[in-house]
Specification:
The structure is a homodimer of 327-residue chains. Chain A is α/β, with parallel strands linked by helices and 327 residues long. The first copy, chain A, contains eleven helices and 13 strands.
């Protein structure tokens, strides 16, 4: 097992469509990276083998200098044991991924949920630097997030805390992908924006003509709705305005719960419609209890799609170094 | 300044109608207590003088054996400086209550928000004992709460975190007493239950006759609605059923955010309608993501109206002892 103090770690962002591995230094800089597709159909053994190939070969790094490997997994994981409990995206159930990877490479492996590691990344090396109370919201196809409270990552009883997308914002409202109705994600997640847009088109075909033409026969997506809203189309603009209002309503509550110093917004929907952050900020400033917002900061993610690899690498370094200190 | 290790502290529950002071031992037992009314009209100096009288005389305790005094204040406080920033109930703005009390008695004083200290009390000596991840919800006239995450009280950037009553559960819904619309409190707080009942009576006077008679010319309150619901009156039952559904909707979200091991429910509305806890539990088990609830516990507060004095006393002991350790 390597005992160097190189500060070099490997971060792996393990998603349902692609896997990115990167060598990251102690300052959170990506030194090199390697991208492969995720062979979900091949099952966990095939994915593990592909990752081993990527780390041993594709990355082109000397593994003896690597202090630890961090992995952010799209799914529910048990950070203590390295078990991936359940990942709908990967179609895995109870796969001891951390242990298998660590044994194969003889390097300590730290795994956590993809959104938790991205939160850690933004906190340590991105837009969340320097504050002890931080809220991070990623709005992509799904809506996830994380929180730092009193200088510590919020984990919950077993590492599942931080499902900010699954707070109820409309009791009895739209069915979510989770068993609940009216979740924040069921209104502002990419899939929900698309669903709401299609419903609006069906309810008012005249107003929906712009979006129908914009889509050129392809599936309606949140990205298309955002693009069309930027051109001033009334239906798309209305959908995105309401998206901002729903996101604002959810954020008001989360800010009352956490009283953070800063909120970081990331994810594909935010990247596609960055004005959402301003909409949310003005709603929160108007609707939250004033003491909670007077110097609250609203910023966009700095790490973007690197948040996963930087966060998992940095979290792995932190945990391995703190374990060493305890020995 | 006393330097004994008696483990005795005084807890003070400072509310807008009454003030309770109690001597509490290190195991959270109330040794003696004293209750006075709050002279809000007399202003902060009069209230401070009354508290000094209560502590020096009414409590009948030897102050030289008291290690610290804890105060839970109904309002926004700055625990670090002892400043009461704002208390609508007391009609105080920026009063340095902690410093004034500590100087007058020459005993260290720790102040915090009333709901934060009650959360601490339930965690240390009540229904929240033994878990590191705890959610506490008090449903009274208002709705407050607190959280313990990873073995620490959630405080937020400046001690204001934990306003669980002010999460949005109906975007654009009922106006809250805070600037937001659709807060949990605006549906399940005692004032909101009464408001919803009156609206239901006005909308359907026939169905409302039972409640009108039950109130015997007095104001409609949540307590009356709860009592009448227990007799089977359809309108009151419907109001309380919906109250449980709203509370459940809010809790689903908070459980996804915190992943606690246990939820403690307290406050007057819960005491009056304890079945609400079962309603909420069944809603949460049906609607939350299953991994969050498989061994989640739903329990009622154990300390009841003692939570404030026990919590503030116990928090004061903890903070003073930990300060001593740092010296």
């Amino acid at each position: 097992m390597p005992s160097s103090n190189s500060g070099l770690t490997i971060g792996i962002d393990l998603g349902g469509t692609k896997i990115r591995a990167a060598v990251v230094d102690r300052d959170g800089r990506v030194i090199g990276s390697h991208l492969i597709g995720t062979d979900v159909a091949g099952g966990p053994e095939k994915v593990l083998a592909d990752i081993l190939d990527s780390v041993r070969g594709g990355l082109g790094t000397d593994l003896s200098a690597i202090e630890a490997i961090g992995v952010g997994v799209a799914g529910q994981v048990d950070p203590a044991s390295g078990l991936v409990r359940s990942s709908p995206n990967l179609k895995w159930e109870s796969f001891p991924f951390g242990e298998r990877l660590s044994t194969a490479l003889d390097i300590p492996v730290v795994i956590d949920n993809d959104v938790q590691v991205a939160t850690w990344g933004e906190w340590q090396h991105g837009a969340g630097r320097g504050v002890d109370d931080l809220l991070v919201i990623f709005v992509g196809t799904g809506v996830g997030g994380g929180a730092v409270t009193g200088g510590r990552l919020l984990t919950g009883r077993s590492g599942l805390a931080g499902e900010m997308g699954h707070v109820t914002i409309v009791a009895g409202g739209r069915q979510c992908t989770c068993p609940n109705q009216g979740c924040l994600e069921a209104y502002v997640g990419g899939w929900a924006i698309a669903e709401r847009a299609v419903e609006a088109m069906l309810a008012n075909p005249d107003a929906g003509r712009g979006l129908l033409e914009w889509a050129k026969g392809e599936e309606i997506t949140a990205r298309l709705v955002g693009e069309l809203a930027a051109t001033g189309d009334p239906l798309a603009t209305d959908i995105m305005d309401r998206t901002g209002q729903y996101l604002g309503a959810g954020l008001v509550g989360l800010i009352h719960v956490f009283e953070p110093a800063r909120v970081v917004f990331g994810g594909g929907v935010i990247e596609g419609s960055p004005d959402l952050v301003h909409t949310v900020e003005s709603i929160v400033r108007a609707n939250a209890i004033p003491a909670y917002t007077y110097d609250l900061e609203f910023v966009r993610s700095e790490l973007g799609t690197d948040a996963g690899v930087i966060g998992s690498a940095s979290l792995a370094l932190e945990r391995v170094v703190s374990r060493r200190r305890q020995l």
